[in-house]
Amino acid sequence: MGDTSVPRHSFPNEFTWGVATASFQIEGATRADGRGPSIWDTFTGTPGKIANGENADVTADHYHRYPEDIALMRDLGVDAYRFSFAWPRIQASGSGPANPAGLDFYDRLVDGLCEAGIAPVATLYHWDLPQPLEDAGGWLSRDTAERFADYAAILGERFADRITMWIPINEPMVTTVYGYAIGEYAPGRTLLLDAIPTAHHQNLAHGLGVRALRAAGAGSVGTANNHGPVWPVTGNDADRAAARHLDVLLNRLYADPVLLGRYPEELATHLPEGYAEDLPVIAEPIDFYGVNYYEPQAVAAPGEGNPLPFELRQVEGYRRTTNDSPVVPGAFRELLTGMLRDYGDALPPIHITENGCACADEVGQDGTVHDPDRVDFLDQHLDAVRSAMAEGVDVRGYFVWSLLDNFEWSKGYAPRFGLVHVDYDTLRRTPKDSYHWYRKLIDG
What residues does substrate bind to (predicted)? Predict the structure, then answer.
C-alpha cells in the first residue's frame, strides 16, 4: 500500500472527508417496512435488463447491517456520510402521508451517525422513483416535481434538526440520458432528444425541493451533478460543434439554469411549454455545488443516419477501469477550473460529492483485499482537486464513491467500487487497502 502524494496538511483543516452510497444500491430489504416498488424494482424484474439477471433485493443488506457500516465509517475517520433516502420507503405510492416505519429506519441511521460523530449528508432522490409516479408519467410529467416537493417537505420536517447538508436530486443527467433517452437504466425509455423535458422537470424538482427544505429549517442545501469535460476528436468545426452539443446535454442543461437562471439557447425548442416561468424556482440560491466526476467524453461529428448531433468516441491513451472508464485525473482539474471560468461568482463552494473507480477486487488467502489501482486513482484525483484549488477553485469537501461494494445498476454486481469489499453470499465486510490508505490520509 503506497503513501499518498497528497498529504492531509495540503488541504484546509476544515475540509470535509467523506464517503457516499445510494439507497437502492446497498439497502436491500426491498419488501420491508411498507416500502413500495420503485422503477428500479420493475426494471430489475424485467428479463434481459440487468447483467446475469441480478437484482437488489438483498445487495449489501445495509438496511439490517447499518450499525456495522457506521462502525466501519467511524474507524475510517470520515467527517461525513452521504446517503440517500429511498422515496418508496417514505411514500410507497410517491404521494400522500409518510410511512412511519420508513421514517423510523432513517431515524435509526441518522441517530447512529450522529452518535458516531459522523455528519449525515442526505440525498433525497438517487433514481429510485416510486413506480406509481412513473405509471402517471414519471419525469415526463410536471406533476412529479410537485410530488417531489411534498416528499422533500416531509423529510425536512423530520430530519432538519440532525441533517445539516442536503442534496435534493442526484445526477439528473443520468436519469434523463440513461433512463429516458437511451433506455439503459430504469425506466427504460428510448426517447433520444425527446427526453429533454425530464431534465427540466428534475431541475424544477430541485428548486422546489430547495424551497421546501429551507421552509422546514434545513441547513446547507446544494446539488450533486455528474460532470465531465467533452473533447472533440479533432479541431475541425464539425467536431467542435458536436462537442458543444454534447456538453450542453451532459453539463450545461443542469448547471446553467441552477447557477445562471437560464438554459443554453440550443435547447429552447426541446423544453416544455412555459419552461421560462420555472427558471426563478430552479435558480433558487444554493449553499454548495456538488460535483460527481468519473471521466471525460470524446465526441465527433455525427455520421450519416445518426439522429443525434454528435457521435461518441472512445477516449484513447489512458488505462481503463473494470467499468471501462478511462482514468484521466487531469480532466478532473480541467473540469473544476472550467466551472470557475464559466460561472465565476455564480458558482458557490464546491463539494466533490462522488469520485471513485471500479476495480477487480478479491479477498486473498490472507483475508486482505489489495486494490492498488484504486489507491492510485484516488491519490491522483485528489491531487487534481488540490491543483484546482491552487488555481482558485473553492472546494470544501471530497466524498469517495463508494463506502461499500454494491449493486451497480444495469451491470449488476460485477463492478466493485467500494473501499470495503462485500461478499454477496455471506455479506461479510472486508476493508480493502484503499480503506486503510484513506484512513491514513484523513488521520494526517
Answer: 25, 126, 170, 294, 401, 408-409
Residue with cell 458557490: 348
Sequential DSSP letters for 1-33: -PPPSS-GGGS-TT-EEEEE--HHHH---TTST
pTM exceeding the 0.70 threshold for the entire prediction: yes
**Cα 96 to chain center, whole Å?**
26
Say if residue 401 carries a ligand binding annotation: yes
Classify each residue of 338-365 as buried b or exposed e, where b means 16 or more C-beta atoms within 10 Å of its C-beta: bbbeebeeebbebbbbbbbbbbebeeee
Cell numbers for 299: 465526441
Q: What is the pLDDT of residue 2?
A: 52
Q: Where are the beta strands (DSSP E) in 119-194?
A: 119-125, 165-169
Tell me: the pLDDT tens digits for 303-318? 999 999 999 999 999 9
Which residue of the set 27, 134, 295, 354 is catalytic?
A: 354
Is 354 catalytic? The answer is yes
Spacing of C-alpha 73 from chain mean position: 19
The DSSP bridge partners found for residue 84 are 123
Please state which CATH class domain 8-443 belongs to. alpha beta
Local structure of residue 410 (DSSP, 8 states):
G
pLDDT in tens, 5-46: 778 889 999 999 999 999 999 999 999 999 999 999 999 999
Selection from 77, 100, 157, 96 nearest residue 124 by Cα = 157
| 64 belongs to an annotated ligand binding site | no
The ranges assigned to domains in the chain are 8-443
Q: What is the CA radius of gyration of the chain?
A: 21
How many whole angstroms separate alpha carbon 35 and alpha carbon 99? 8
Write out the E strands in 27-87.
80-84
Q: Which residues of 167-196 are buried (b: 16+ CB within 10 A; e: fewer)?
A: bbbbbbbbbbbbbbbebebbbbbebeeebb
Residue the block writes with cell 413500495? 36
Distance CA 418, CA 341 (A): 33
Give me the catalytic one of 115, 171, 295, 316: 171
- What is the helix (H) or strand (E) element at residue 354, kind and residue range? strand 350-355
Ranges of the chain whose pLDDT falls below 50: 1
DSSP-assigned letter for residue 176:
I
Is 408 assigned to a binding site? yes
Name the pairing type of β-strands 297-300 and 289-292: unpaired
Please report the sign of the dihedral spanned by the C-alpha atoms of residue 375, residue 378, residue 384, residue 387: negative
Q: Does the annotation flag 170 for ligand binding? A: yes
Within 196-249, strands assigned E span: 220-221, 224-226, 230-232
Percentage of the chain exceeding pLDDT 70: 99
User: Is 365 annotated as a binding-site member?
Assistant: no
